User: Fold this.
Amino acid sequence: MEGLQRNIGAEIKDVLAALERTSINTAAGLKNCMDDAGFYIEILGEFRDNSEERKTNLNSAFEQNDVQSYRIYVHSLKSAARTIGAEELSALAERLEFAARDGSTDFIAAHHAELLERLDAALEDILSAGAYAQGSYDVLAVELI
Assistant:
């Protein structure tokens, strides 16, 4: 088991090193996860796994002009993005959340596509970092528990 733990540790280090070369602030993400690299990797995997549903929900609320639901979905995205260290995505989501709160549908219309682009970019950063060990997030999270 000790050799397995050492290998998992090296794999986590590779993923974190790859993430550091992206727009994701790994230091902030680790801090938000109590400096627990295994937990951070697990949260990154959850972010990755929930991204399509987030996009679907945001698009649905946007297309139906359901500002209240949009506010809830964009709030959730803001928090999740902040947790992993996707600071630019989180900041834009926060501005859209306030716009939804204030009923500023013009602002939402002007920035919704940008939000989705930034979400896709964050997702691509996570996936490219995981390229060193395809599917590593799920395996690492399970093995560290």
The radius of gyration is 16 Å. Residues 1-8, 131-145 have pLDDT under 50 and may be disordered. DSSP finds seven helices and no strands in the chain. The first helix runs from residue 2 to 19.
